[in-house]
Amino acid sequence: MGTTLTMSVIVVVGTLLPLLVDPEERLFTRQGACICGGLGVCGAAFWAAAVALKRKDIDEEEASKIEMKTVNPSSIIDEETATFTQTPPPPPSKTYSTFYKVLVCIVSGILCTMLQFSFVFSSSLRTLASETYSLPPSRSASITFFFAITICPIPNILIPAYTLNKSKKLHLLYTSPSAKISALKCLTIMSIPWVIQSHLYGLSANSLLGEYGDAIGWPVLIVTTNVTGLVLGWKVLGEWEKAKEETVRWVIRSIGLSVVGLGIVSAGGFV
């Protein structure tokens, strides 16, 4: 639920940002209206995904209760000879209010849109690079990512390092062989594709999608990411095995709405 809400904030803020920079010329136009309409459909897709995830949790909880009620006759213990060791209950976990949880998701969504902020507000820098060095639009966006991707890893490294150190697990990163292998896998499987998709987004938004490229490319990027996660979890990773048919239908609805919404957003570049 939290991830879906955060992704919704990311796609809404990132899409509206370039339109709000010059609302009369971009937002209050046919293209802007089409993009906003498609954005609304994408919002419905995220809502359907949230419903599916909530129902999935309920289905898994019900399945777990059924499994616990299933008794294996060979495991019945003689009450007269059995001894039981009472384990202390786990300490109560800290609870947070719904307002606090929603606020964290909203702030996370806004911060995750910083790549779009850097792209939208660096137009003068890209123009300067293009005019000074005669760079084509497909290459002038690299100046934005040079600063964004160079500075971005610093807090992303310091914050997890602080968290791991606070939980006294930081040493596992350089002492545990399995942790070293996992870190290498994460670097290869996650970091490199993220850099590639960021550059591809800059290329498409700056030179391939026309005047509204930044407002069209961003929802395409984020919604496609969300759909990919749903499909992989559903068809490849088996995360929805215990989900009921109605729950899976909500997944299909979310994917269908995402496709329709992206189609409407993309049409904003042609109307």
From TrEMBL:
Q: Please give the start and end residues of each transmembrane region.
A: 5-21, 27-53, 99-121, 141-162, 215-238, 250-270
| Domain of life the protein comes from | Eukaryota
State the organism named in the record: Triparma strigata
Q: Which UniProt keywords apply?
A: Membrane, Transmembrane, Transmembrane helix
Its organism's taxonomic lineage begins at:
Eukaryota, Sar, Stramenopiles, Ochrophyta, Bolidophyceae
Protein name, UniProt field: Uncharacterized protein
